[in-house]
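Dig into these lines:

——
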Amino acid sequence: MHAWCSGEETAFAALYARWRLRLYRYLAHQAPSEADELFQDVWLRISAARSQFVGSARFSTWMFRIAHHRLIDHFRMHARHLLVEYDDESLEQIPAAPELDPLTCVQRQQAAAALLAAVQALPAPQREAFLLAEEGELSLDEIAQAMGVPRETAKSRLRYAQAKLRSALAVWR
């Protein structure tokens, strides 16, 4: 990020390559039908705000904070419910491992569907904390900073999310 801020344009390509999938998955879990638009907008905001990056936090924390604020703006603007439905077509695109028998492949697809449903069933703040930890690979302090909440709040949201997911997915163990 510092190289890009210093004018080295090729550094942006490295940042984008490293973080694009994690950012997209984070946005797709929060707003699947608008993920493409939000994804592009977040990168535009990152580009516009690059001169404001001071390096007191990791780039990923800074990026996910921008994404968090963009999601808040999006939901306020559209005044819609945070819970959204995944379509079953996205689950059909999960490739089957060639060495697995058909029954195992079906079981894995069912487990993936159950996981997606369980994540979507989480309250929005818990879902976001969980996705920042899993998709963004952020630490607890970074999650708190990205969400703009105290560390203990982020910790409890993450703990509640993990407990609810464990409970919902206990049948797949």
Notes: Residues 164 and 170 are 10 Å apart (CA to CA).
